Amino acid sequence: MSTAVVTNAPNKAVLKAEFTLFRREAGSLIGILLFPIALLVILGSIPSFREVDPGLGGIRLVDAYVPVTVLLAMIAGGIQSMPPIITGYRERGVLRRMSTTPVRPSALLSAQMAIHGAAIVLGAALCLAVGRIAFDVALPRQLAGYLLALALSVVVALSLGALIASRARTTKISNAIGTVVFFPAMFCAGVWVPVQAMPDALAHIVELTPFGAAAQALNQAMAGDWPGWSHLLVLAVWAVGLSGAAARWFRWE
């Protein structure tokens, strides 16, 4: 028991310190918490977005965009916010110096993933709340299925971010890779065209991507259906593959 206490104490200190630094990073908070909500408010303020669209199965565009903004919080946190922080620590030798102390570098990575995961979940909750309060968007009718799809999607986003951090040698490279991945991820999430409104051939391709599958799974749970097992399987495969690749290729120095 005493060994566990000694081991956990430094980890808690790292988590507390990283959380304090994260709160001071306005850019990260804006990307994860405010940007998705701002997009939802702008789109929801367009009258045509509040009208029922037969092409979307009888729902409104604003209804379809709430899951999209939830995914935007994940993309911003996992792809753009977390990787530069971890890469910066490696670039400045922080991880190398930590390896000589009782605090293991893995504690820092775990803290970053926990903090960004919590911020993503908070961003998702805010998107759902704003959608409900401002535009009368129904809350997820299949709550258990929604939470499962959300959890898998968060794991995918953080694993993708960890993979980017594992391959990028410098912060500049990390930012460049994040930017390159950011726009295809947004497209697959349905930012420009909701996945359910895409042509069938394109939609089937997009559904094989992590955020395309996540968009469909979240939409189905919002409507009251259990997310398609094919979408959940795609998310699970991506989560295992990305996390495994990140663990294999990650370097502390």
TrEMBL record:
Designated name of the protein: Transport permease protein
Transmembrane region(s): 26-44, 64-86, 107-131, 143-164, 176-195, 229-250
Boundaries of every ABC transmembrane type-2 domain copy: 27-253
Similarity-based family: Belongs to the ABC-2 integral membrane protein family.
Molecular function as annotated in GO: ABC-type transporter activity
Lineage start: Bacteria, Bacillati, Actinomycetota, Actinomycetes, Kitasatosporales
Cell compartment(s), UniProt: Cell membrane; Membrane
Gene Ontology BP annotations: response to antibiotic
